[in-house]
Amino acid sequence: MIRGALVAALTAAALGLAGCGAGPSGVLDGGEAPTGLAPGTPVYLVDDAGSLVARRRGDRLSTIGQAIKMLLTASEPGPGPRSYAGTSEVALELPIATTGDVITVGLPIDRDDVRREIGIDQLVCTALAVHQQSGGSPATRVRLTFVHGRDTGPRHCPVLPAS
User: Fold this and answer.
1) Phi, psi (deg, nearest 5) at residue 131
2) N or C: which terminus of the chain has fewer CB atoms within 10 Å of its end residue's CB?
3) pLDDT tens across 99-119, in order?
C-alpha cells in the first residue's frame, strides 16, 4: 500500500515537472500598435436646443486639425445640428502644438467669427474628443489662438469627463 502511494506521488511529481510538453518561447513581436482614429470620430455640433452633441463621422478624421477644419468649413447654421465655430476656407494643416497637458490650436479666423461661446466649446470638445480617441489623456486641455482677438485660456470640454 505504501509502495503504491509512493509510485503515485512520484508519477505526479514527474508529470508536474514535465509540463504540458510545450517548450518555452522567446519574446514574441506583436507587430506595430494600432494608430490613428477609428471610423466614427466624434465631432461636436450644436443642436436646436443650443446644447453640444457628439456626432460620429463615418470618415477618418485622423488629426485634430482635420476635425477642426471640418467644423470651420461646415455649412451655415440652419435647422438640426450645426457648427457655430466660424467659417474659413482653410486648405493647409492647422498649427497644433502640445506642451505638457495643453494642446494649442491655431485658428485661421478672428475671435469675432466664432458664433457665441458655445462655438468655442464646440472647437475645444472636438479637439479633445480626437485627442482622447487616439489615446490621449482626459486631463488634457485646449487653448485656441486666433488671427485677431483674445485667445482662450486652457479649457476643458464641459460635456466630456475630466480626470
Assistant:
1) -60, -50
2) N
3) 999 999 999 999 999 988 999
Read off φ and ψ for residue 66, nearest 5 degrees: -65, -40
Average pLDDT over residues 135-146: 94
User: In sequence order, what are the residues at sequence separation of 6 or more whose Cβ sits closer than 8 angstroms to the Cβ of residue 75?
Assistant: 82, 83
Three cell numbers, residue 140 = 488634457
- Whether the model clears a pTM of 0.85, i.e. scores above it, the answer is no
What pairing do the DSSP bridges indicate for beta strands 52-57 and 41-46? antiparallel
Asked whether 151 and 144 are in contact (CB, 8 A), the reply is: yes
Task: Return the SS3 of 104.
Answer: strand
* H-helix segments, the chain: 2-18, 64-72, 116-133
Cα gap 128→137, rounded to integer Å: 9
Q: For residue 102, with 0-12 CB atoms within 10 Å meaning exposed, 13-18 middle and 19 or more buried, which class applies?
A: middle
